[in-house]
């Protein structure tokens, strides 16, 4: 659907061609062929640009939805603490991941 709109827009910009101009030979036909190739490149570039823009909009809206959901969450241990068994006098490293909004602070 979008491709057809771009094609119509591009063809509207090149209204100079008439039916009798398509019966050309030699250099004139080569010029027409080069115009066709140029128009194909323009169409491809426009379609690629629109696809990238749509992809960026989708990514941005997904990120905004994520941030909204995150802001509505209470602090949560994404990776909870694990139980450790150690001997007296040994060192132990405790780690966890906590998320929430505003970001919580963890103290030991």
UniProtKB/TrEMBL annotation:
Q: Which InterPro entries match?
A: Ig-like_dom, Ig-like_dom_sf, Ig-like_fold, Ig_I-set
**One Pfam family named in its UniProt record:** I-set
Ig-like domain spans which residues? 75-108
Q: Which Gene3D superfamilies match?
A: Immunoglobulins
PROSITE patterns named in the record: IG_LIKE
Organism of this sequence: Dissostichus mawsoni
Q: What is this protein called?
A: Ig-like domain-containing protein
């Amino acid at each position: 659907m979008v491709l057809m709109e771009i094609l119509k827009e591009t063809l509207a910009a090149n209204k100079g061609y008439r039916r009798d101009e398509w019966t050309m030979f030699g250099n004139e036909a080569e010029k027409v062929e080069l115009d066709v190739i140029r128009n194909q490149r323009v169409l491809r570039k426009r379609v690629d640009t629109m696809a990238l823009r749509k992809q960026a909009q989708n990514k941005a809206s997904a990120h905004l939805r994520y941030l909204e959901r995150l802001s509505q969450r209470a602090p949560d241990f994404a990776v909870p603490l694990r139980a450790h068994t150690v001997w007296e006098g040994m060192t132990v490293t405790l780690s966890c991941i906590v998320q929430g909004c505003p970001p919580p602070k963890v103290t030991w």
